[in-house]
Design goal:
Number of strands of chain A: 12
Order of helices and strands of chain B: EEEEEEEEEEE
Radius of gyration of chain A: 13 Å
Oligomer: heterodimer
CATH class of chain A: Mainly Beta
Radius of gyration of chain B: 13 Å
CATH architecture of chain B: Sandwich
Strand content of chain A: over 45%
Distance between the termini of chain A: 41 Å
Structural class of chain A: mainly beta
Number of domains of chain B: 1
CATH superfamily of chain B: Immunoglobulins
CATH architecture of chain A: Sandwich
Chain lengths: 112, 114
């Protein structure tokens, strides 16, 4: 079964600093990868997704992720974080039945 | 466009009691998912419907959990009887017709079993 591993459970970072949240996936012939964000007391929201084509995908709020087949990774990056980016971030991979297999999540804490 | 609706938002019950959760997906979405999110973990699929048929329920504890999606629209997830380890957030999601379509999640129901 397809799976993802999020390598960091917590990532503390100062405001305006760059951040990388790491995600590795189990190899497969084809893979669809997602990053979801969960703000405190809110539901999951799609941040970005890789389906095919360009290996670099971007979100509307400055996050980007790069699909790296040789390293089986889909790390999430942002060059400069804001306090409002504090949230739980989940990497996920689509399984054969179209549902999502999620990682355990990375808690991003941005401080002034 | 209205999002995925879930109710109740919070529920506290004692072990061995029964509980039911309701989900109304986005209009026109054929695929509906129920996920269980235990504190500190990522969501785990419990059951997936395509219209009113079950696509995947391999991780649903069928001795105590049941779900239905009558008429292929809204869905109910039931736990009977509840155990302490069922304490979690139950998330409902829907997508237009699976595959590469985005899954949209509801706010979830937080269940506490005492």
């Amino acid at each position: 079964a397809q799976s993802v591993t999020q390598l960091d459970s917590q990532v503390p970072v100062f405001e305006e600093a760059p951040v990388e949240l790491r995600c590795n996936y189990s190899s497969s012939v084809s893979v669809y990868l997602f990053w979801y964000v969960q703000y405190p007391n809110q539901g999951l929201q799609l941040l970005l997704k890789y389906l095919s084509g360009s290996t670099l995908v971007e979100s509307i709020n400055g996050f980007e992720a790069e699909f790296n087949k040789s390293q089986t990774s889909f790390h999430l990056r942002k060059p400069s974080v804001h306090i409002s980016d504090t949230a739980e971030y989940f990497c996920a991979v689509r399984n054969s039945g179209y549902a999502l297999n999620f990682g355990k999540g990375t808690s991003l804490l941005v401080t002034p | 466009e209205a999002g995925v609706a879930q109710s109740p938002r919070y529920k506290i019950i004692e072990k061995r009691q029964s509980v039911a959760f309701w989900c109304n997906p986005i209009s026109g979405h054929a695929t509906l998912y129920w996920y269980q999110q235990i504190l500190g973990q990522g969501p785990k699929l419990l059951i997936q419907f395509q219209n009113n048929g079950v696509v995947d329920d391999s991780q649903l504890p069928k001795d105590r959990f049941s779900a239905e999606r009558l008429k292929g629209v809204d869905s109910t997830l039931k736990i009977q009887p509840a155990k302490l380890e069922d304490s979690a957030v139950y998330l409902c999601a829907s997508s237009f017709q699976g595959a590469i379509d985005t899954q949209y999640f509801g706010p979830g129901t937080r269940l506490t079993v005492l």
